[in-house]
Amino acid sequence: TAGQPATSNATDKTVTTLAELDAIVAANPKVLVDVTAEWCIECRIMDKNLFHNRPAQMQDWQLVRLDITETTAASKAILARYKLFGPPALLYYQDDQLVNQQVGEIGRAEFEQTLTALN
Question: In this structure, is residue 29 part of a structural domain?
Fold first, then answer.
């Protein structure tokens, strides 16, 4: 649809709070959380490299963009929960459990290897 970035699928979700994230994680067997912010240059690079032409291994994963562009109590709580200084980070949930966490800029090969190992 017009106005949506080419990297978005209709099923992608964007949230800004832990409550929203937890609800999605609880409702989906596999959730990939992309911790991102509009001012994060590495996030834009990762978005293009990882999600523009998605690897086949991603087909069973619900993508959630956890947007911490604004510094709020909610964004601070997100950073505190995951012990992050800031984006980018990828969080992998399977059956409501955090099974992997990658902090910093991730390349395509490493991303695909992680998905393959978890699938």
Answer: yes
